[in-house]
Amino acid sequence: MGLFRGLSQIGSTFCVFYVLGLILNQALICHGGTTSNFVREVEKSIDMPLDSDVFSVPPGYNAPQQVHITQGDHEGKAMIVSWVTMEEPGSDKVVYWREKSKDKRSAKGKMSKYKYHNYTSGYIHHCTLRNLKYDTKYYYEVGVGQTPRTFWFKTPPKVGPDVPYTFGLIGDLGQSYDSNSTLTHYEQNPVKGQAVLFVGDLSYADNYPNHDNRRWDSWARFVERSVAYQPWIWTAGNHEIDFAPEIGETKPFKPFKNRYRTPYRASNSTAPFWYSIKRGPAYIIVLSTYSAYGKYTPQYKWLEEELPKVDRSETPWLIVLVHSPWYNSYNYHYMEGESMRVMYEPWFVEHKVDIVFAGHVHAYERSKRISNIGYTIVNGECRPVEDQSAPVYITIGDGGNLEGLATNMTQPQPFYSAFREASFGHAILDIKNRTHAFYSWHRNQDGSAVKADSMWFFNRFWHPVAETSSAVI
Ligand SMILES: *[C@@H]1O[C@H](CO)[C@@H](O)[C@H](O)[C@H]1NC(C)=O
Ligand SMILES: *[C@@H]1O[C@H](CO)[C@@H](O)[C@H](O)[C@H]1NC(C)=O
Ligand SMILES: *[C@@H]1O[C@H](CO)[C@@H](O)[C@H](O)[C@H]1NC(C)=O
Ligand SMILES: *[C@@H]1O[C@H](CO)[C@@H](O)[C@H](O)[C@H]1NC(C)=O
Ligand SMILES: *[C@@H]1O[C@H](CO)[C@@H](O)[C@H](O)[C@H]1NC(C)=O
Ligand SMILES: [Fe+2]
């Protein structure tokens, strides 16, 4: 730094040194974090063919398929159970009971169908189970009276500051062979995720001619092995939009909205694409990159009222999910999240959001705690700076879909980027108590226990001191 300062001083007098100073300035200030040099086999991601084992249709007449669950209320005492029947509507009922209890209850759901171009969906059922007990294993049966199938889930602990809870993080999953290895790797992780925070881009059906919606069905059959047993919290990505006026489809989000429910009304949201839930020690806010977010829009008004409601002595961990990242140093979707960042970042700093998870870029990246909220048009202060009130931004869009990896990074690595690597994988956020959470990222090529990147998160409300991190490369 001494050399740099010296040169800068001379540089201010002599033009030639000034230019040299600028160059050195670049080199010295832009010391980024780690760009992993992990060498992977780069092969094209190929979708699994429709007759693959993971897509098999369960046997039996009108057997329920594509079973999935998600949180059904604001506190975690309700679960939305969804499934599809193909031959006929079948029963709307879900029969459910607590482990070791003979007291069987039933809830009635609703059935609907939709058409998309020349595709007609099966009979899509959604049924909300309410007033569940916290921290309890439930069994549930769908296909009542025809071909019943039984699954189970565990409700979260009562919302509170010091209950541990473990989230899995998956994004941009798709249905390629790599997607299958990501899901398998997540399932085999010795640290067991209890719910998945899914940051958008589910099936990638829209990459097929006419957005072949059979790929929505196959995707749901593929992930059933996880999402029938633990809730996945849904974020809408660009591959959920399915806006295709060229084939007469002008209602955005049609397949996604019909197939995947979110408990948006419980958080007073007016659309299923932005909402919040509490789960154990966490308050999760889901935002929509692909719904209006400018001033005066429904999403803006909702978020403005939502953030002050978060009570950190009840839910210390404030986590935001959004599809398009705000801080992304790959040469893909570069700056696509920028306008939303400009709108909402000051609120995230004011309310001390702990972590923002995003997808969209098919790679992995973790930022330092940074903010870029000083700019006022006239003052020229438009650089990210380290900020202990700011969230860490994590891009986890590396689920493994058919579009392949994002390997091209901006150079040099910006200083705010702590770690980046173009590999498929998933992450785990293991919340221990109100102050500590252990976070780890797992690339598919490693054994299931290997942490390719990890850090202890310190809660921004209860323990706002700087963190350090470690990466295995
Ligand atoms: C829909 O149209 C495409 C070609 O336009 C055709 O290949 C496909 O078989 C049709 N699907 C149905 C269900 O009719
Ligand atoms: C997907 O992964 C599962 C679990 O590892 C495996 O049993 C299955 O054969 C795989 N399917 C394909 C098509 O790769
Ligand atoms: C939703 O609005 C109602 C009525 O204003 C209020 O009672 C309730 O607490 C709100 N719920 C949430 C989760 O903000
Ligand atoms: C990486 O992206 C940059 C910016 O878009 C482009 O100029 C460059 O050619 C790309 N490199 C490769 C190897 O594709
Ligand atoms: C919170 O968890 C961390 C990590 O397990 C532990 O070191 C710390 O003592 C815990 N704090 C309390 C108050 O239990
Ligand atoms: Fe995306």
Total DSSP E strands: 27
Query: If you average the pLDDT, what whole number results?
Result: 93
Q: What small molecules are bound in this structure?
A: 2-acetamido-2-deoxy-beta-D-glucopyranose, fe (ii) ion
Structural class based on helices, strands and sheet pairing: alpha+beta
The dominant shape is globular
Question: What would you say this structure looks like, in words?
Answer:
By secondary structure, the protein is of the alpha+beta class. It is 17% helix and 27% strand. The protein contains 7 helices and 27 strands. The protein has helices spanning 2-13, 15-29, 177-188, 214-227, 254-259, 298-306, 338-350, and strands at 34-35, 65-71, 79-85, 93-98, 105-108, 110-112, 115-116, 119-120, 123-129, 137-142, 149-154, 165-170, 195-198, 232-234, 275-279, 282-286, 317-321, 355-358, 364-367, 370-371, 385-386, 392-396, 417-421, 425-431, 436-443, 453-458, 469-471. The strands form 6 sheets. Strands 1-23-19-22-18-17-16-15 form an 8-stranded mixed beta sheet, with no helix packed on it. Helix 1 (2-13) packs antiparallel against helix 2 (15-29). The longest helix is centred in the first third of the chain and has 15 residues, at 15-29. It is globular and about 65 Å long. One 2-acetamido-2-deoxy-beta-D-glucopyranose (NAG) binds at residues 331, 408. Its cofactor is Fe cation; Zn(2+).
